[in-house]
Each structure stands twice: as structure tokens, then as C-alpha cells.
Amino acid sequence: MSALHLHPLGIYLFGLGGGFLLPILYQVGKRWLHAGFVVAMLGMTLCAVVPALSVLQSGETIEITTAGALPPVSINLRFGPWEAAVSASATLAAAMLAISFWQTIRTKYVPLLLFLIATMGVNGLIQTRDLFNLFVFLEILSVGTYGLLALSTSRAGVQAAFKYITATMVASALVLLGAVLLYKATGHLNIDLLIEAAPPLAAPIAGTALAMVLAGFLIEMKPYPAGGWGLDVYETAPPPLAAFLSVVGSAGLIFALGKLLPLYDQALGLLTVGAALTFLASNLAGLRQQNVFRLLGYSSIGQMALLLIALAVLTDIGANEVAPYVLFGLFVNHLLAKAGLFCLAGALRARRVDQPLSLAAKPALALLLGVFVVAIAGLPPFPGFWAKWELILQLAEAQRPVLIGVILIGSLFEAAYLFRWFFRALGPAEKSESEEADDALTLQDVLPPVGFAIFLAIGGAAGAMASGALTISTVLPLLAGAALLLAEPLPGRIKAVAMLAIVAAGSLLLPRPEGIAGLFGPVLLAGGLVIAFAGMAWPGPRRGHYPWVAVLLLSIQSLLAAPTGLAFYTAWEFVTLASAFLIARREAARGEALRFLIFSLAAAFCLMAGFAMIAADAGTRSIYAIIALGSGDGLGVALLVTGFLIKAAAIGVHVWQPGAYAEATDDVTALLSAVVSKAAIFGLLLTGYLVLRSQMEVEFGRTLAWIGMATTIAGALLALRQAETKRLLAYSSMSQLGYIVTAIGLMGHLGWVTALYLVASHMLVKGILFLAVAGVAHRTGSSLLADAGGLLRAMPVTAAMVAVALLSMSGLPPLMGFGSKWLLLAAMMEKGWAELAIAGAIATFLGLWYMVRLFTALFLGPPAAGGARGEASPALLLPQVLLVGGILVLSFFPKLLMEPVSAAIDPEFAATLVWQGQSLETIYGLWDPTPMMLSALVAVAVLTLLWWTAVRDRRVVPTARAALVSASPLPPALMPPLAITFWRGVTAGTNRVADTVRRIYTGNAQTYVLLTLLYFLAVAVALPLIPAR
Amino acid sequence: MTGRTVHLGLSALALAGLAFAFSRLVGAHVEPTALGQLAAGYIRLSPEELSVPNVVTGILLAYRSFDTLGEVAVLYMVAASLGPLLQPMDNPVASETPRLSENAGEIIHSGHFALLPLIGVFGAYVILFGHLSAGGGFQGGAIIATGIEFYMIARVASAINVKAFSALESGVGVLFVAVGVFGLVFAGGFLDPRFLPAGELGHFVSGGAIPLVSLLLGIKVAAELSVVLERFRG
Amino acid sequence: MTALPVSTVLMVTGFGLVLLGYSAILIHRNILKMVIGFSLVDSGIAIIVVALGYVQGGTAPILDADTTAATVFVDPINAALAVTAIVIGFAVTAITLAYAIRLYRLHGTLNVDAFTESRE
Questions:
Q1: How close, in Å, is residue C68 to chain A by CA atoms?
Q2: Which of A64, A557, A907, C108 stands 20 to 30 A from A806 (CA)?
Q3: pLDDT tens digit string along C9-20?
Q4: CA of A445, closest CA in chain C: separation in Å?
Q5: Which residues form the MrpA C-terminal/MbhE domain (chain B) (predicted)?
Q6: Which helix (H) or strand (E) holds A65?
Q7: pLDDT confidence of residue B185
Q8: Phi, psi of A79 (to 5 degrees)
């Protein structure tokens, strides 16, 4: 053994040797000091990373003995795969943080040597196999931290350091006493021998000793409610130091706890409960936190608790195969993303959560911050996502639904406060130019975060590979987005063309969806491309628009062809993120983007839990796992349906939708309504279809149908009340999706054919309408119904397009809307759901009403003041013409759609369902539509007549028109905003709980000492009570 | 009920809980009549392998010297941290504590001439004979530092050359690590003191590098403690 | 009744000091008294560590001329651990005192209730 090779022992030589040398080098000269630090830090990093690579490659553990004697006589260290992975990443992170820290610590030698030795201390915590030595390294880390905290010179900073010291002194006293008592009880200090001796938790000395050690290390990890002192330091310390504590220090602490875990194999449940409490409480409290660094502190504590939950549960259920992948995934995700967040927030001088940082004007920084926030929120493509997915699946397999709930709810809170900060940070800062100049970032500010982001991307790819998700379906949308990101300097219209070409070409490379999905695929792709073409109507570079549109459209294709739950979910999250970022491009839309994202993530987490439970019950992770489900247990399916309904804006959970649609850029709204909403419909349809093919005996069709119908009616009523075109159309979209949900709820061939028909119809219609009102808004400068009027002359083509769309949507013959409505009514009658059919008829009437209202308000009557200056731009009109073409073709040649629909649905039924052998045409002809057709034609005639009079006679119409435009179907008192009131209540309630949760953190050092002591007592009381297995 | 009452009430609860836990420990304690296996092993090994009759020193400076290295690091970090920590701040509210009288008094002043050499010799003895009899680097270093503190008290106006002391402790620290590496290269492992001949049990020159380590430790601890004391003196 | 074993007496003393220390930390609002409390805890722990290593009738684990095969030693490990614990305790106390001085310079008070700027 020679020190010349890179050996983990070198970490200690460089750490201590370097640390001891620095003061001497400082006397020689500052350059020497800096060179010495760089050499020592680099040497430490290399001595951790290079041997780690070889250990991980060979799987062979490096055992390090000291003093030339064997353990237990001497202290030994271990550098196995686990130690290697954690040591190497922690040391590397420390080295990168040193770059961020450089400006602060370079002038004196003390912080430099403290940083060096503290990093070494973390390595010792990870590698030592001696309990008392563990205490010594704990103290090295602690004392190093105490010294480094001298860098916080504000009042709050010095106070925080004092609180930190007092609390950690309690913790280390517990560890010390526990270690010595354990030696007394067992005769061992060597951890391996201690584990072998398995001291009983209930024995008076050994049990108390174990409780002391456990509580000591738990307290070091700042558990709720004994972790307030940690938050104070995160809030006040220089950001790179906070980052060091949050990621490097925590790495050592959790590893130390992890290696002692075999001593507590009966207390894993207790650990899980404690960590779950911390995870939930931290993220809950984070919701109310205004200081960015304290917020990151709450998030850090939460992330460490999540890691602890995973550690305890995976050990408990013996999931040894996936444990490394889950634990290291979660660990490295937090390590990189949180370090990046702290550094970036520090560099940007972020203080308060609601403080805008002008990031929208600095796209590279926005991207960087976005990467970290997405990673911490556990979203793809970063390592935490893959790990969390596997963790949830393991929890489902182990029948821990409550824990799944806790993790997902906590994650939702965390995502909520991080994205709230992110969206706020995008906004323009109120700063003078001189201040802006002061804020110029240096290389040291930017380099580490960029490095962390790159490692995150690499880690994400590795995680995807490990979970078998590194397929073209996952990678291609991102690559397309990245390619367009590189093309950002080009002019907007060139990027638009490039995006369309890339999406079109990319879709050819993606696996072709089959069956029902095969029908959605081409329809949504074609519709998406046509609508996205309208982007040409917007001048300027449109930074950040085209990459996300490409990700969005390609991810939808990936989603449709997904073979596994994971592939589906990954694509689903890409769609969610791309949509949210597209909405958030408009400054005014960011509040709505946040709401959109929170509801979308809630939906996504329902899906995740649902998939996990289904996969656990069915024993397969295929997207078709539902088929393998037995009878009973419908919770998984219920969660899936809930998730899809949230995204389909079903009644009650629709509140995210109108605002997001109204505030997003017009072409984005068109995409969201016409194309993106269909992903939820596809999921719902697939679920329904699979349930029918399974042995399950759940009857949720009727409920679903009624939810759909209620959504339809409520959406229509709300649409009638809107004064703004886009809001009106947003509610109309909700209403129309309700029809589709109803159709799916029919749980039969006819209903699903209808649903698919409606999907195509709604896509075409909403594409036209949103683009048309975009054209109107472009020309009139307003989206208020009251500001428009008489546009028929100025914008005849747009009027014609809207007329066709309206007719089609209203379910009037002869256009395709009629066919779909007719099919729906027929299907309801077939099922004998007459009440539903009647409700459907009412809804159709309401739909007709608001559509006529829209048309009248925009195009009829006298031209409004200001008026339009001409027809909409060709870039907006061309997609509309194409979509109208689609309507006409499908109306007059329904077979073009019906045949593929039959082909898609029939073979899938052939296998398991007895179908009565009727072809679609016979079903279509089951009832004679003639009377209906005739009455509808009469209605059209009346409408046309009205229209003509309106155009002709300018004197009579204004009153009638005004009455129509301003009419309300029901007095407001009869339509209380129940959903909004409910969700406001939920928010207020959550905030109140959050305030209560964090009130315990009084900021008083004595309170914190008291809480740490009580925490120990709680552990000591609980530990022996756990029954031995 | 005010926050303070709640605090005191819960504090009483916590203290009662601790007292109960401690009384359980004391109650379960049985005074052993023989050493455990590991401890007995040390009693056998220290003289045999290291030629060090003081088993505690054998453990501290050889078998568990990795701990010792760590605790040296802790002390070193604290001595270094006190400099920036006790530096005058930019934004103080309270003025510096008033200086004590320049004159330490006749007894102390005269006493320190007599006592300092004795303290120094005693400290050196404890350091150098730590491998043979009760003592060692830490203990001796602390004794010497006591002498230096005495000196500071006796000569209020005197200044300790912190720079020199810091350089001393740093240099000695580097040597300590170097000794560790010597063990790695020339003996059985990092910090193995047996790269020097073991000598005869009970002789002054014995125990491999242990007396050397003890000396380094003594100097280092004395220097560090002195720096700590001087920093507090302001 | 026989007298209490010496190690038990020591343990009671040690744990008593620890309790006394924590009482000071929890009750006294002056942070210097809190630091003294921590110091008491450290001392208590050191005494406990030594007490736990006591063997009935044992002598210091130093071999000398009087040592015979029948000599009983106390546990040398505890002594070694106690040295380490004492040194670390000293170091931490020093740094805590330094922070107390810093706090006093910044606030002009040593009352712990004044140091609650960061909270919740």
C-alpha cells in the first residue's frame, strides 16, 4: 500500500495535512495559500473520486486499517460501493461549492482550512467503522461548521450560529454518551461487531444507549419539531455554506445513520413515522415561508426526511435490489439540485420569495433555475424522478398507501412553493440600471450551478437507463427541445418552421401508437402541427416558445405509444411541464400557470399512486396492467380516473382551467384546449377500456357519465356568464370535454366511438375558435365581448370560420358535431339512461346559446369604437381554413373517421367482449335521425334568419343583440362559485395548518434545546415499546 | 398561560424524563469484576506489540490514534476559528469589556517567577514520560498551557506572539500527519508508530514513535491552548 | 447493607452533573450561564465515561514493577475515550464562549430571549 496511488486514505492526508499547512503558506504569501488550498481540495476530490470509480466498477471494497492493527483493536475505515458513491459525490460537490465560496473565503486562511477539514470530516462520517470515531468525525464536521459560521456577521446570523451550536451540542452529547454506554453494554465500539451483537432495544443500558445514538443523529438531521436551529442557519449563512451544510454535511449525517441502521431493524417503523412527520411538516411550513434561503432550508430538511423514509422502508421490506438505485437517485438529486439552488439564489441575491429577479430576461439563468426546481420537485428527467417512481411502486407493493399519500402530498407542497418562487423570479425586477450592473454575475457564480445542472442531466440519463426508461420516446422530445433551444438566436418565424419540421420528423422516429392510441396519434399530431403553425402570426423571437411546443407535441406522441406506466407517466409530466412553461411565458399568466401546474401535479400524483397500486396488485408494470387485476380493490383505478378527471377539468376540479386558458398566449391556449386536453381523455378512455376487459366488477360508468354531464352543464352555464372571449371558450372547452367524459362513462362500444368522434370534433372546433378570437383580439386590441361587434365586414373570413365551428359544435346538422351528439344520445338511450339524455339535450341547448352569443357579440351589430383594421393575419387564418377543411371532410365523409375508429375499437373488443356483430353504420342507423335532423334544420333556419336581419336592419338589432350578449341564463345567486369557494377554503385551511406547524419554531435557543431533549425522550420512550419481531 | 410558563413546565418534564432515564441506567449498572475481551486485549497488546506500559497512551497514540488525530483537528479548528470570531466587529453595540488593571498584584507577580519553571518541567515530564507512566501529550500540553495562562495573568501587558504559536501548531500538525504517513510507508499502516524500533519495555527510548508523537502532541496542544487563551484575552 | 459501589457513586455524580447542566441551559436566560451548563454536561459525561470503565478493585492500566498476573486493571479504553471527550468538550466550550462574546458585542445583552431574529 503506497500513498502515491490515489487511495481513499489520501482524503485524510490532504484534508488534515493541507489544513495544517495553510497557516504556514499564508505567512509565505497569499498565492501560496490559494495554491495550497486548491491542491489540497483537488487532492481530496481525486482521492475520493478515482478510487470510487474503480470500486464501483469492480464492486470490491477497499478496507482501510490504521495503526497497523486489525479491527476491533484499531479503528478501521471502509470504502465499499456505497461509501465510494456517497463520498465521491459529496467531496466533488464540496469542491464545486468551494468555487462558489471562493470570493467569501479566499482572503483569510481560517475559512479555507475549516472548509477543507470539514469536508474531510464528512468523508470520515461516511467511511469509519468505529462508533466512537464516528463521534469524533461528527465533532469535526460540527466544529468546522461552527467556525465557518463566523462568516455570518449579521445579528441574525450570529444568533443562528449560537442556536445551531447549542442544539448540535445536545445531539453530540447524546451520541457520545450513547457510544460509551453501548461499549459498556456490549464490549464493542466497532460497528460491525456491534451489529453482530445486536443489543436489545428494550434492555435498560443498551436500549437507552441505542436511543441516545439514534436520537443524536436524528436531531443532527433537523427533524420536525426539533430542527428550527438548522433553518435559522440555512436562512442566514452565506449561501455556499448553507449549500455545504444542506448537501455535503447532510450526506455524511444520513450515511452515518444509515450504517447504524442494522442496530435498529425493529425500529424502522418508528424512523419512518418520524421522517414522514418531518417531510410533511417541513413542506407544509415551506408554503408560508417568505425568505428564499429559509424556504430552501425547509426543502432541504424535507428532502433528507424523504431519503430517510426511503432508507427505512426499503430496508424494512428488504428491497435490496432497487435500494441503491432509489436511495442514490434521491440522494444525488438533492445533492446537485439543492446545491445548485443555494448557489444560484445566492448569486442572484434572492431574498424574498415574491421578489422578481428579471429571470425572464436572462433565459440561461431561468433555464438553470428551472432545472433545479424541476429536479427538486421530483419531475423528469432528473434522477429524483426515477427514484421516486420506484419508491412509490415499492411502497405500493408493500401495502403502504398512507405513506404514499404522505410522500405525494408533501411533494405537492414542495413543488408548489418552489414553482411559486420560480414563476415570481421570472418577473421583471424594479431596479435601476446601476444596480443591475452591480448584479453582474462572475464566473465563480455561474460555474458551479452549471456544473450541478450538467451532473443532474447525466444523473437523469443514468436513472432513466436504470429504470429502463431511456428510450427514444423519452429522449426524443427532450432532444428536440434542446435543439430548438440552441436555435434560439434565430428569428422567430424560422424557428417556427424549424419546430414544425422537427416535430413532424421526430414523430416519424417515435414508436407508432396502436389501437385506440393509434387513432389519437395522427389526429393530435396533425391538429397540433396545424395549430402550432399559427405561431407564425406572432412576430419577434418568442424566446422559450418553440422548444416547449416541440417537447409538448412530441411528448404527446410518446405518451400515446407508452408501453409501461412509467413511460406514460414520464411523457405525461413532460406534457405538464411544457404546458406550464408555455403558459408562464406571459408575465400576466404566471399566477395561472402556477395554479395550472399545482392541479396538474396533483393529477399526476394521483396517476402515480394509481399506477403503483395497480402495478402492485397486477404484478406487472405494463400500461395494460389493469387487465390483470382481479376483482375488488378499485382504489388504484379510482386514483387514475381522478387524475385524468382533474386534467379533463371535470366539475369541481376545473378551477385551474379557465384562467390558464384565458391568460396564456392565444396559440398556446388553442394548443392546450384542442390538443393537450386530449391526453387526459385518452387516459380516461384507456382506463375505462382496460377495466372493462379486466375481471374487475367496479361500476363507475354511471358516476363518470354524470360527472361528465354535470361538467358539461356547469361549463355551459359558466360560459354564458363570461364577458371575455377566451374565458368563454375556456368554459366551453370544459363543457365539451364533459361530453367526452360522459361518452366514456357509457363504458361501451357506442360510447367510445362517440368519444373518439367528439375528440376529433372538439379538437377541430376549439382550434378554430381560439385562433379566430386570437385574430379578433389582434385586430381590436381587446378580448372583451363588449369591446367587439360588427366585425363581419372587417373580418369576413374569420366570421365564416367561426360560423362553421359554431355550427359543428352546437350539434346542428349537417356538420360533424351533429353526428357526435346524435351518437351520444343514441348511446345513452341504448343504456336506458334517459335522465342523462335529457340533461344532454339541455346542455346542447345551452351550448347553442353561448355560441350564438359569441358570434353575435363579435360579428353582428354596429362596429365597436376603435374597430378592426382588417382581416386576421394569414398565419392565423391558414390553420383555421385547414381545420374547417377537416370539419367539412369528416362531416361529409364520416367513414373516413368512422372506419378507423371501428378498426381501432373493434379488434380490441374482439378478444374479450361479445359484440353483437353490428357494424357501426347499423348502430348509426339504429334510430332514425330524421325527425331530429328536421327540427334541427328548422332551428338553423331561424338562426340564419336572425343573422340576416341583424346584418340588414341596424336599428332593431342593437337592443336584441345587447340583450343576448349581456344575458345571464340564471341569476348569479343561483350559481354560487362553489368550486372557487371550496378551493379557497382548502388553501386557507392549508395555510392555517402551515402557520400552526411553524409556530413551534420560536427562534429561541432555549426552546430549541428543550425540543431536542424532548425529541430524545420521545425516541427513548418509543424505542423499547416496539415489539420484537 | 404564557410562553415562559409553558417553557418551564416542559423543561421540568424534560428534566424529569432525563432523570428517569438516567436512574434506569444507574439502576441497571453492575460494577464488573473483570475486563472485557477488548480491554484485556489492550492490556496484553500494548506492552507486547508497542513496548508501551501505559496502556491508555498505547490506545490514544497508536491503536486509536485516528481518533487522536481527529481531536487534534477539532482543537486546531477551534484555535483557528477564534481569531475571526473574536475580531472586532463592524457593527458592535456594546463596547469592549473593560481592561483589568495593568498590575496583577505582588503575590502573583512574584509567584510566577517561582512557579513557571516548575510548571514547565512538570509539563515536559508528563509529556515525555507519557508512554511509561500516567501522562501523555494532551495532559502535558494542558499543563504547559496552564503555565502560559499563569504568565498572561501575571504579566497583564504582555502579548503572546500568536503568529508564532500558530505557525508552531501548524508545523507540528504537519509533522503529526507526516509521522502517520511514515507509519503507512515503513510500518503496518497509517499512524502505526512501529516504524521506529520498539526498544525495551519501560525504558525512556521505547515504544517506537510514541514518545515522538507524544512530544508533537504536547507542543501542539500547549500552543493551541495558549492561542485560545490569548484570543480570549483580546 | 453494603456501601454503594464506587462506580455507582461516580455515575450518580456524573448524571447529576449532566442534569444540573441541562437545568441551567433550560432555565437560565443568560447565555453565559447556558454555556456553563454545557460545560457541566461535558464534565458529567467525562465522569460517567470513566465510571463506566471501573472494574472492582481495579488500578490504573499502567504496567509497572508492582504488576502481577493477579493485578486487576480498570478499562483503559474508557480512559482514552474520556481524554478525547474532554478535549473536544473544551474546544466546543471555547467556541461557544466566543459566540457569546460576539452576541454581546452585537446586542449589548446576554439574554437569550433577545436572539430570536430568525424564526418560524
A1: 23
A2: A557
A3: 999 999 999 999
A4: 26
A5: 36-87
A6: strand A62-65
A7: 92
A8: -130, 70
ipTM above 0.90, yes or no: yes
Grid cell digits, residue A569: 407517466
> What residue ranges in A178-271 does DSSP mark as E strands?
none
CA distances from C6 to A10, A205, B36, C11 (A): 45, 18, 19, 9
Q: How many CB atoms lie within 10 A of CB A463?
A: 27
Nearest Cα residue to A426 out of A240, A660, A588:
A588
pLDDT of residue B160: 83
Identify whether the C-beta of residue A200 lies closer than 8 Å to the C-beta of residue A220: no
- pLDDT value at position A977? 86
The sign of the torsion formed by the CA atoms of A158, A160, A166, A170 equals negative
Helices (H), chain B: 3-28, 37-45, 55-58, 65-86, 106-128, 137-154, 162-186, 210-233
- The answer to whether position C1 is within a domain reads no
Count of the separate structural domains present in chain C: 1
Smallest Cβ distance to B42: which of C8, C55, C77? C77
Chain C contact for B53, CB < 8 A? yes
Which residue from A586, A768, A581 is spatially nearest to A670, judged by alpha carbons?
A768
Q: Is the pLDDT of residue A158 over 80?
A: yes
Q: Which chain A residues are within 8 Å of B27, Cβ to Cβ? A: 204
Q: Which of A148, A1006, A1008 to mutate to test the interface with C (most CBs of C within 10 A)?
A: A1006
Torsion from C-alpha of A35, A40, A41, A47, nearest 10 degrees = 140
The x, y and z cell numbers of residue B220, run together, are 501542539
Nearest-Cα residue of chain B relative to residue C57: B33
For B192, the enclosing helix (H) or strand (E) is none
Instruction: Give yes or no for a cis peptide into A225 (omega within 30° of 0).
Output: yes
Which of B116-125's residues contact partners 24+ apart within 8 Å by CB, and which partners?
B116/B147, B116/B150, B116/B151, B119/B143, B119/B144, B119/B146, B119/B147, B119/B150, B120/B144, B120/B147, B123/B147, B123/B218, B123/B222, B124/B218
Q: Where are the domains of chain A?
A: 267-431+442-470, 471-698, 730-975
Give the number of other Cβ atoms within 10 Å of residue A364's Cβ. 12
The residue behind cell 325527425 is: A931
Residues spanned by the domain of C102 = 6-113
Instruction: Report if residue C120 sits inside a domain.
Output: no
How many whole angstroms from its chain centre is CA A201? 41
Residue A638 neighbours by CB under 8 Å, 6+ apart: A610, A700
Q: Is residue C38 part of a domain?
A: yes
C84: which 3 cell numbers? 478525547
Which of A49-63, A155-169, A372-386, A952-966 is least confident? A952-966
Query: Side chain identity at A1028, as an amino acid letter?
Result: A
Contacts with A173 (C-beta within 8 Å, 6 or more apart), sequence order? A216, C18, C41, C42, C45
Q: Is B195 exposed, middle or buried (0-12, 13-18, 19+ CB in 10 A)?
A: middle
Reported pTM:
0.95
Rounded Cα distance between A565 and A640, Å, is 11
Distance CA A250, CA A764 (A): 53
Nearest CA in chain A to C107: A155
What is the rounded average pLDDT for all residues in chain C? 94
CB of A583 closer than 8 Å to CB of A593: yes
Q: Which residues contact A462 (CB under 8 A, 6 or more apart)?
A: A383
Q: What is the pLDDT of residue A485?
A: 95
What is the number of residues in chain B? 234
Exposed / middle / buried, residue A873 (Cβ in 10 Å: 0-12, 13-18, 19+): middle
DSSP A917: -
DSSP category for residue A351: -
User: Locate cell 351589430: which residue?
Assistant: A861
Q: What is the mean pLDDT of chain A?
A: 90
- What is the domain-level CATH number for residue C55? 1.10.287.3510
Contacts of B53 in chain C (CB under 8 A): 62-64
